[in-house]
Amino acid sequence: MKRLLIIAHSFPPRTSSGARRLIGFVRNLPAYGWEPVVLAPDICHYNDSAQEDLSEIPAGIEVVRTTAWLPRYADHLSPKDAARNFILRKMGRYFLPDRVIGWLPQSLSAAKQLIKDAGCQAILTSAPRFSVHVIGLAVKRSTGIAWLADFRDPWTANPKFDQRHPLRQSIEARIEAAVIRRADGISVYSPLLAEYFIDRYGIPAAKFKFISNGFDRDIIGAFKEIKSQHRNGRLTLTYCGNLTGACGETYARRPDAFLRGLSRAIKQAPGLAGRLKLRFVGSFPESSRRLLAALGLADIVQIIGRVSHRQSLEYQSLSDGLLLINGCIPELDRWVIPGKIFEYLGMGRPILAMASPGSWSWQIINKTGAGLVCDADEARLARTIIEFCRRISHAGPGFERNAAAIADYDCQVLTRHLADFLEEISHAGS
């Protein structure tokens, strides 16, 4: 069996969508002839970790964690660590391409040793954070090993990239160009990003492989069959993920338009308030909390806060429908595909989505028949919410899910594509 070194900043017990993509690969690669070895920062450098999610890492998978020049997170920091964190946070805004570059010295040393000791035939780096690709570039230059660079989000293609300082833009663009040209293969979460790279750098299309995010049937399977629990006959809709406080943020997901649409729906269908409950699992902006109160929705909306991935799956399984909120900035919606949509597909609950027309989220919902999708117009949202609740309460026609289309997002299928691509680039580099 060949061995693959995966260099990742996002890996369990991190609860991020990036960690979900990588653990899906790690769990399934051995079935296709590749044994993964994972290199990640020490858990103390994660501010969004949940220890119980370590159980998702299969027994026997080697995970090497190193220290880094990154902030440390703990309930009680020593004065030395507190001072260290203060300095790193102040300096971090000037690090290029991001603060995770502080992991470069330790990760480069560890990667070279692991390649030698484990006999790895290839490495995979996954970003963001894009400093991880800089680490991959350094490893490639030092060892010549076959290198697959995995892009989970756009870098210079991000519509907000041009808002950065011109000097920073220039440096990051050069780093991206070096990554694209030196990597032996590029995997992308979206065909749109591959088209961007091909046009920008004149790289042959054969160097790129579209590998979507997906769902892990084995992890979800333990929760999927749990039946929704109607409390006092209420329909429960759940959103899982972090929401942001302002549309100016890099990946804006703000619930305000949806909440206003919900308020309209309740006015148009007076009985709806008494039979509907919404749960938001994850961070929730303070400004939107105030809006909840102003709209009179506090009694039907429950804010759970951040939880582990496994707890998130349990909340999903105990729901009648799952919420997806995008559409704050249509241009960003073209590029950003929330990872939760795939997990929702795997869970099998109907999906109610707010997204920009024509975006990937919009297309996926319509292609799979998994639910209803609407733009951020409040009047249209109100009508869509009413119709969605009618269908999931069995007063309507329900949803005809396209099982074949959904199966395309199974991690086992996606990992097979990854393994085939690894075979191509490792043979080409040998």
Describe this structure in words.
The chain has 430 residues and is α/β, with parallel strands linked by helices. It folds into two domains: 2-214 and 410-429, 3-Layer(aba) Sandwich (Rossmann fold); 218-407, Glycogen Phosphorylase B (Rossmann fold, 3-Layer(aba) Sandwich). It contains 16 helices and 13 strands. The protein has helices at 17-28, 79-92, 104-118, 131-143, 166-182, 191-201, 217-224, 256-268, 286-295, 309-317, 330-333, 340-347, 360-368, 378-392, 403-407, 411-429; strands at residues 2-8, 34-41, 62-66, 122-127, 146-151, 185-188, 208-210, 235-240, 276-281, 301-305, 321-325, 351-354, 371-374. It has a seven-stranded parallel β-sheet, with helices on both faces. The chain has a six-stranded parallel β-sheet with strand order 10-9-8-11-12-13, sandwiched between helices. α1 links the parallel β1 (2-8) and β2. α3 crosses α4, α8 runs parallel beside α9 (286-295) and α8 crosses α14 (378-392). The longest helix has 19 residues, at 411-429. The radius of gyration is 22 Å and the shape is globular. The two termini are 16 Å apart. Mean pLDDT is 90; it is low at 246-251.
Give a concise summary.
By secondary structure, this protein is α/β, with parallel strands linked by helices. The protein has helices spanning 17-28, 79-92, 104-118, 131-143, 166-182, 191-201, 217-224, 256-268, 286-295, 309-317, 330-333, 340-347, 360-368, 378-392, 403-407, 411-429, and strands at residues 2-8, 34-41, 62-66, 122-127, 146-151, 185-188, 208-210, 235-240, 276-281, 301-305, 321-325, 351-354, 371-374. The longest helix is centred in the last third of the chain and has 19 residues, at 411-429.
